[in-house]
Amino acid sequence: RCQMKLVSATANPHKYKEMKEILSGKINLLPRPDEIPEIVEDASDLKGNALLKAQGIMKATGLPAIADDTGLEVDALNGAPGVHSARYAGPDANGGENIEKLLNELASVPMNERGARFRTIIVILFPDRSIITAEGIVSGKIALTPKGKLGFGYDSVFLPEDVPGKTFGELTNSEKNRISHRGKALQGIIGKL
Ligand code: IMP
């Protein structure tokens, strides 16, 4: 039970590193094998997409798989980009393009109306088809301009409410992990194992 082996479904090296650090000493997290083709994430919610990723990896490896799916929910955009966060600015959009679109959409929105949250759903799928899931949420605001070069995705424009004045892009991995959506979801799922 300690040092259980889980194969990570993420192809994102930043996410893998975060997850590896949070799980260290508890779970032996194996990287996603390179030869597994890309998994289409076309479910209509975060849990559906996490499950699609976990299924793809569990079937390919025969080992328990862990997958997360994350969305950024912005109040002034009625919860968008949400499940569409990865492709917000287009099918092949990168982090910079997604941030640019987000800041444009919010150009006329004042600081006190820029509330947002990251929501992560984590799924562990076992070869016997049993499933464990957990959710993690971090609340904050969308900054007026990007700040900080650490992290990935939307990190440079997210101001978590627990660390006043700093974006996720200005936090080290361990500082971010302590308060982040992914950190909380992983703590939750560890508790259920
Ligand atoms: P996915 O969970 O990999 O599908 O991520 C959805 C989108 O949210 C992508 O654009 C990611 O770059 C972004 N994202 C996921 N996790 C984080 C995070 O911890 N910080 C900032 N952006 C994130």
Describe the protein's topology.
Layout: E1 4-8, H1 13-23, E2 27-30, H2 46-61, E3 65-74, E4 81-82, H3 95-105, E5 115-125, E6 131-142, E7 158-160, H4 173-179, H5 181-192
Parallel strand pairs: 1-2, 1-3
Antiparallel strand pairs: 3-4, 3-5, 5-6, 6-7
The structure holds inosinic acid (IMP).
Inosinic acid binds at residues 12, 68-70, 72, 85-86, 95, 98, 151-155, 168, 180, 182.
Detailed description of the structure:
With 193 residues, this protein is α/β, with parallel strands linked by helices. Helices cover 30% and strands 24% of the residues. It contains five helices and seven strands. It has helices spanning 13-23, 46-61, 95-105, 173-179, 181-192, and strands at 4-8, 27-30, 65-74, 81-82, 115-125, 131-142, 158-160. Strands 1, 2, 3, 4, 5, 6 and 7 form a seven-stranded mixed sheet that branches. A hairpin with a 6-residue loop joins strand 3 and strand 4 (81-82). The protein is globular. It starts with a strand and ends with a helix. The model has no long low-confidence stretch (mean pLDDT 96). Bound molecules: inosinic acid. Inosinic acid binds at residues 12, 68-70, 72, 85-86, 95, 98, 151-155, 168, 180, 182.
Fraction of residues in β-strands: 15-25%
Shape: globular
Please give the number of β-strands. 7
Could you tell me how far the N terminus lies from the C terminus, measured between alpha carbons in angstroms?
8 Å
Mean pLDDT: 96
Kindly summarize this structure in a few lines.
With 193 residues, this protein is an alpha/beta fold. The chain contains five helices and seven strands. It is globular.
